[in-house]
Amino acid sequence: MLFMTSHSYETDIVSMLNAGTNDYIVQPVSAQILLACVETLLRHAYRQSVSGSREQFGDYTFDSALQPVQVRDTPASLTNKAFELALLLFRNLARPLSRSHIFERNWKQDVDIPSHTIDTLI
């Protein structure tokens, strides 16, 4: 959460941070600073844990370089498309994704994919 205010009172800033905001901006602010703050928040929102090519989501570890998925340190074999779909869904936990968004992200060039393909992979 990003909080923008025209007040720079220390008590207001402390209250905002204690209430759960991730960052605060005192107006007026340049477009570059605002954009940098928003991009930072988006990076944190869409990535839970990144270390090189490995991403951790609870008990699930994805390695984009090697494409194995591990569930509680046990490897799980997935096809490339199933891996990409699972990683997309985990990166967007608690966010609804439309079928068209999933197709656009995972099947960029394959336009003649049957609509039940996602259902089959899930």
Automatic annotation (TrEMBL):
Response regulatory domain span: 1-42
GO MF annotation, one: transcription cis-regulatory region binding
Transmembrane parts of this sequence: none
Sequence ranges assigned to domain OmpR/PhoB-type in this UniProt record: 52-122
Recorded GO CC terms: cytosol; protein-DNA complex
InterPro entries registered for this protein in UniProt: CheY-like_superfamily, OmpR/PhoB-type_DNA-bd, Sig_transdc_resp-reg_C-effctor, Sig_transdc_resp-reg_receiver, WalR-like, WH-like_DNA-bd_sf
Keywords: DNA-binding, Phosphoprotein, Two-component regulatory system
Phosphoprotein recorded as keyword: yes
Gene Ontology terms describing biological process: regulation of DNA-templated transcription
Feature: DNA-binding region: 52-122
Protein name according to UniProt: Putative response regulator
